[in-house]
Every structure is written in C-alpha cells, then in structure tokens.
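Issue 218. Parser rejects a valid record. Input:
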Amino acid sequence: MTGTEPSPDLERPSAGRVYDYLLGGTNNYAIDREFAERQLQLMPDIRTGALANRAFLGRAVRYATEQGIRQFVDIGSGLPTQGNVHEVADEVAPGESKVIYVDNEPIAHAHARILLEESADPDRHHAIHGDFFDGPQLWKRVLAEGLLDPQQPICLLAVALLHFMTPDQHPETPLAHFRDQLPPGSLLVISHGSVDPADEAGMAAMQRVSRNYSTQSTNRGQLRTREEIAEFFGDFELVEPGLVWLPQWRPDSAVPERPEHSRLLCGVGRKVR
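Output the parser choked on:
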C-alpha cells in the first residue's frame, strides 16, 4: 500500500473480513469472527449464502469467459480466497484473461496485491485501492492501469456489494456511469441480499442481521426487493434464467429444496447496444 491509502479500521468488523471468515478463510481478526458468530446465531443461513455466492461468482465468470469475454473488473472484490476471478477465467481460457480487482478496504487491497504478486500474472492481473462511489474517477483509474481495451466487451462484477449501500447513498448513480462506459457485448454481474416476501421469519431475521451490520460494523446493510435489484441492471438484458436465487443461476449441481435460503438474488445482464 502507498502512504495515501487509509489505515484499516480494526476497531469494528468489516464485511469483507466477515465474508472471508464465513468462507473458511484466515484473513480476518477476532472482532470479525466474533461478529460473524453473532450473525450466525441470528441466521445460520448466512454461511450457506456466503458459500452459494462464491459458487455463483465462479459460474458467472465461467459463463462470461465462455462467451468470449477476456476482460473483468471486480468492484468490491474483498479478500482473496479460493476461486478468484482470474483463476476461474484462466481455467477456461488459460493465459488470456485480464482482471482488475477494486476494493476500498485497505486490508483486502493489501492481501489482493500480495496474492497477485505470488500467484497471478502481473502483466494481466492488477489490484487497485478505490471506492465504488468515486464513479467517473474510479473508472478513469481502472482504464489508466493500461490492461483493458475500452472498445472490447468487459465483464463488470458487483457481487455481494450493493446491499451494503443504503438508498440515501444512491448507489444507482455510479453504477449507471459504469454501465454507460461498457461497450456493447459487455456483462454486468450482480448478487444482492433479499428475502422471499412470503418468508416472514426470514425477513425478521435478515432485518436483525442488517441492523447489526449498520450499527456494529464498518458497513451498513440494506435489503432490497426483486424489483429494486432488477433496476440496477438498467436497460441491460438479463440472460437466462434471469434474476433468481443464487443456487438457481445456471447450476452445476443439484439445486437445494429451498434456494431462497441463500438469501441473495443474482443475475447477469448483457449490454446489447
């Protein structure tokens, strides 16, 4: 990290480090583990959702690569763990993918840089410290890395990111800017916390979990409805099977009986024009 990057907040748990713990990672602290365990007491499905979300990320990247896309921008990439974007893309098209990881959490960014230095191709895979809400300035920095051809399709990932942004922050504004910068043929990958409206107990539990994030961690939580999440795709066309629960998106194994217990909806949109 450079001297211009903020110091990590170790007084409160962070979503990225809690997610790492839920996935079985080691890049977390006692405060994150304690917070995660309290969340699991409120809703044990959280770990199921974290694992399902990581699996969805892999399937979405695999799909994008199979569609011929070789450029990826992962905003809110979090802490490195098994199945990173560049690893999945290189399984499909070895030596061809170009990936830029973006995160505003200093520890996540530092670990990403270490991971890429140790196990990735520095000519094709970069990590930058940046914030989603920087909008146009962030995209300029992404392009300034010199990896991406802005005229060729790009897969933009905002996976398990937007549900940490409240309506008063207007996350739709920077996201619309990012969509506008993508050339035709690009893909937008989103997963977002939600609850089946018919699941009253699940809704109550998720609201408690969301309040805990808002009051105790460095992130604020915000559940959204299916309709609200769909709006994040703008005029992009959702590829089949549309906006569905995590295990339902192009599954490569049996779908659980209650896919809604993943607590996240997900989809992939394509820019047609």
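Fixed in the parser; the record now loads. The chain has a mean pLDDT of 87.
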